[in-house]
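Before drawing any conclusions, I needed to go through one protein's amino acid sequence and its backbone structure tokens, quoted below without any editing.
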Amino acid sequence: MADVVLITGASEGIGRATAFTFARQGYRLSLAARTPETLRQTAIDLEQSLNAEVLAVPTDVTQPEQVESWVAKTLERYGRIDCLINNAGICMSGSFLQTTPEHWQQLMAVNFWGYIHTIRAVLPDMLKRKRGQIVNVGSMGGKMPLPNMSAYCASKYAVSGLTEALRLELQPQGIQVIGVHPGIVNSSFLKRALFLDELHPEAASQDALAADGSAREQMEQALQGFWVSQPEEVATAIWEAVRESKSEVVVGMARWAVGAYTLFPGWVGPILQGAPR
């Protein structure tokens, strides 16, 4: 019987590409995303193009009762859970003082607590069967600091720590925990990203804006660079990590940046400090 994979943030970008990648490998799919329309269309596309078996459940991962309902429907439909891919997330750019406690709570609710809720929901079945894989999609921002992204980096560093600690705890019980860390990805995340200089322009430095452009403009320029990954590249990295039982993967050109920071933080740090804001 084919394995079952659960994917959050599955309607667009990395999540959608990952759903197609696993469907091509014969997996049965259980997909979650907040927007019912795009999630439904993803399910239709998978069924029509690949004849995939798909369960699509609109789910807000910040709401544990919705996550528990999604997992319960998955077990009712398929009877087992083999792999969870935590992918749902949001990006936020802004200085520390622009970032209010409400912004921090919003970001952590999705990027960190969303992962906690899904892992807690799937673990009982995995522990009972003494097998399973949990993939946490992090970010290069969880392996090295990025300028004017303190909240985002904090949420992704939390994911990295969670992943590494859970790996030690669950590996003896037959469950693999995998971290996959993309760099900049040319996906639909830009339209969902929060740019605090747009929300609070009165708090932004006008000198910085005049010299460097808005944070959105800078991100749009960055997405034109040769170092940018495509969603399909990240999806392939996730599949290879699952297939080969890797502990951690840094995707694409991000591996060079993370490697340089790990080896030479005293050199890379000042370069990051001088990066456009």
